[in-house]
Amino acid sequence: MSPYKGSFGPFARSAVVVPVQRNENSGIDVDFSRNAPKGKFRVVSVDTFDGTDGVDGDFDTLGLAEAYIARATEGQEMLKMHIYDDKGDHVGEGGSY
After folding, report:
1. How far is the CA of 21 from the CAs of 2, 25, 44, 45, in angstroms?
2. Has residue 7 been placed in a domain?
3. Which pTM does this prediction carry?
4. Residue 43 lies in a domain
């Protein structure tokens, strides 16, 4: 398990991170919803090393969610982030396996 215990280290300082599962994306729609609140975009992080996943935060615009992912994944390996809209549709991603 990550020494950050699912907090995704220094990138969690401005977001709420809720670690929920140990297999990539297995917690989505089981332990938490991929659907963002109405009119927002939800970022879900997946640590592809230890398999934890969780909600990083909900953002007002797709651009803000994309900027957050770009900053959070810069220089990181084995960290994927996915963006979902309020209907639960996958609308973006970043990071690397």
Report:
1. 13, 8, 12, 11
2. no
3. 0.69
4. yes
